[in-house]
Design goal:
Residues 23-33 have a biased composition (Basic residues). By secondary structure, the protein is α/β, with parallel strands linked by helices. The protein contains 11 helices and 9 strands. The strands form 2 sheets. The protein has a 7-stranded mixed beta sheet with strand order 5-4-3-6-7-9-8, sandwiched between helices. It has a two-stranded antiparallel ribbon with strand order 1-2.
Length: 275
Amino acid sequence: MTRAATAHPAASALALRPDPSHIPRRTPGHAPRHFLTPSNDRAHLRVPAPNGYSHAQATTGQERVITGNRQTDWAFADAYVAEDDALRWARDRAREAGLRSVSPGAGAALRLLAATVDAKAVAEIGTGTGVSGIHLLNGMRPDGVLTTVDTEPEHQQSARQAFRAAGFASNRARFIPGRALDVLPRLADAGYDLVFCDGDRQEFPDYLAESLRLLRPGGLVVFEGVFAHGRTVDSAPQPAEVLRLRELLRTVRESPDLLPSLLPVGDGLLCAVKR
Ligand SMILES: C[S@@+](CC[C@H](N)C(=O)[O-])C[C@H]1O[C@@H](n2cnc3c(N)ncnc32)[C@H](O)[C@@H]1O
């Protein structure tokens, strides 16, 4: 028998009610699930040891078992910022279309990041039905414009309606239908404060190259879904999509042009500032 994990005590203390659909289900009485973390998955991601320490020394005391409590903490963090009717509407359209959309926590992080860089111009790859777009627009300057690309015009049509329902004037978003790798080369060099990548994961390394050209110095590139639901750090054989995500993670970490951080919200939000 399964039951939904109960809300974190802090949630009731704050009188917050995370959306139960974002709380992972747990089976009472089962041993805590063990997840591979970068520290015990060096074969794939080759986490460098700090200077002067062996890996064994560097990770002593750091090897982590991610318990059900931690899962609940993460779920609480992910649902911490409430969403409004327009976002719920866009999520419903995504569900109907069988599309993923960013989690509330990833959306809140996008809003924060857009506000942090005082974004006036944001490029988005993968409009979907507009969930991430609303979060980005909420964080951007009031005169900021979101340029959003998707292969599917009907997804963009839903996003257009969602943006309207969220109260954004039509000139706040520029919808470009098409494949990202055909459209991005037409966008201006150094013309963007933030590039958000949520299209085809196999193309993420190519999006990175385009993003570096599109971003101004100090701008941010953000990739959604780099955990691939646990497969990125799973030592079992993985499909090409996951191998490409690992390639992206290594390239971003090793690039002298980028200052990265991997945020554990949603399905993993890889962020990097262009120096
Ligand atoms: C995960 S959904 C995006 C969800 C959206 N960011 C949100 O949170 O609401 C991925 C979207 O990327 C689009 N897509 C897939 N491959 C693409 C490509 N090569 N170029 C542009 N868009 C693509 C799909 O049509 C889909 O709408």
